Amino acid sequence: MNALYGGDLSEEEQQKRFEEQNKKSEDLVAACMTEQGFEYVPNIVSGSVMSSSGEEWQPEDREWVSQYGYGIINYPGRDTPVEPEQSSPDPNAAYVESLSPSEQAAFYEALYGPQPTEEELQAMNDETGDGGTYEYDWTTAGCSGAAQHETAGADPLQGEEFKTLSDSLNAFWMDMGTGPEFAAVDSEWVACMDEAGQPGFTTQSDASNSISEKYNAFWENASGTEGVSPNSPEVKELGEQEIALALVDLECREKVNYLDRRQEAQFAAEEKFVADHKSELEALKAAAEQARS
After folding, report:
1. Other CB atoms closer than 10 Å to residue 128's CB: what's the count?
2. Most buried one in 12, 175, 189, 192, CB count within 10 A?
């Protein structure tokens, strides 16, 4: 997977790769737009592919959990003002503004392809969609899509050669966490939560999800209400419930050795998958390395 997605590169190497791909892609876009009869100056993006708030996320640390719970209502850096990102000016802005409305529409269609239909937009916003999930197609994404495809290269895992492996991987990841080893540790965690006065959960993720659902419901019900903010008494009370639940959850995870046992089961499942699909995975790795060379 590292060979496929560049995870084996250092931060500096990833930054260099990003900059090189961005320049190559923008040069291709410029050539394509010229062929379409438009002016286009390559928009070279500067910046880092890595970003970090500098705040540590420590859901297994008791002191951290005592302050933030699951990090849903309150979280590190919540009250720190966010500095707006400094974006480089678009070198094509003045040219686009000089065009008529119809010419501007033609410019953006040449650059990005036709705008999605209402049905496609619905599918993008809906996991199922009325007619199935909308899938991005670089062949209909204008000069930008063609340039990105040529620069990044086709993902071998999306090709017909590795379709069987892709299907097997998707099924593996979907089923992760459903084996008997996972069920056993979840069952012990549930029993511990019941004994501690926090019943009603069937898996560990249900606990944090219960807070998220309450928080989302609060904002849905408060829609259009004046004076409602993250510092409202109702939110503060829910934050206290979150911390209380998260502390019991942490106690039970520690009691049943939850993380280590889940990780052990995960690694065993991964090792079996690799053994069962070793030749296919090695062929995928070789194809990915060849595409990057």
Report:
1. 8
2. 189
